[in-house]
Amino acid sequence: MHGFPQLGVGISYRPLWRQEVLVHRVHLDCLEVIAEHYLRGLPEKLTELDQLGAAFPLISHGIGLSFGTDMPLDAAHLRQIAQLVERIQPAWFSEHIAFTRVPGWNIGHLASLPFTHAAVDAVCRNIRRWRETLGVPLCLENIAYMVALPGDLTEAQFLTEVVEREDCGLLLDLHNVYTNAMNHGYDAAEFLTSLPLHRVVQIHLSGGHDEDGYRIDSHSTPTPEPVWELFRFTASRTPINAVIIEWDVQLPAFEVMQHEVERARAILRGKDHDVVRHADSLDAAVY
Question: Are 76 and 153 within 8 A, CB to CB?
């Protein structure tokens, strides 16, 4: 999209990798940082943030603003986010099309919205409230969901309504697409073709696991081959400004993350076959 810089390929930062991230900075183009990890203003966390910002372009990624709640964004949380944005000057801020709270109650996870026009209206109202407070561009992410709530729109129609109406970027999480396709029985490639791919600014790549007949978006394993295929499919159809590899639990050796970054970068260049040939040597490092 116009106005979004090209940031390349990086990882979602975790403190365990701090030294390796800085030592191997030439192998990473950018970093994504979880906004809520830095909102308390602890000196050591702010020093860490400044150190990362001096070495990389940073993308700030939120997990708690709850754009889908049909009430105004939490004012105190929004002020803290504004202070963080002012400090690191990200090219854009990203959040989820989901809700994490209802009046008087923090749900504690990303919950799916019903795919309705009323829910679209609620998200759009909060996007406008965001813009009244922060000027940084906004990208919104599709989530994985276990339960599909009744609605008068498809998921693709719902996402399209939000990003087109409010002129937002789309953070397209491809493992979430794969997870939903597996759990809800639809074709992932057909789903992608029904999205406004020209709105895609950023891609998330990650892995998960299968449990009791369901695909779980656990961010605990390497990106599986079907998700790499979805990435090739998407990259062949639209420019992508940034690709971020996510891994949250059972963190692997850093060289595994480097391999994922190299493969994503090679796919963007249409030259990933050589990278794939060396993947077997990293299997032991994953665990």
Answer: no
276 in a structural domain: no
Q: Is residue 42 part of a domain?
A: yes
The answer as to whether 222 is a domain residue is yes
List the CATH number of the domain containing 207: 3.20.20.150
Q: Does residue 143 lie within any of the structural domains?
A: yes
* Angle, CA 29 vertex, CA 253 and CA 159 arms, to 5°: 95
Q: How much is the pLDDT for 200? A: 98
What local confidence, expressed as pLDDT, does residue 275 receive?
A: 56
Paired tokens of 3: 């106005």
Structural domain including 220 reads 8-249
Total tally of structural domains belonging to the chain: 1
Position of tokens 């990200």? 90
Give per-residue pLDDT as tens, 163-215.
999 999 999 999 999 999 999 999 999 999 999 999 999 999 999 999 999 99
What pTM was estimated for this model as a whole? 0.94
Q: What is the pLDDT of residue 1?
A: 66
Residue segments in the chain with a per-residue pLDDT below the cut of 50: 281-282, 284-287
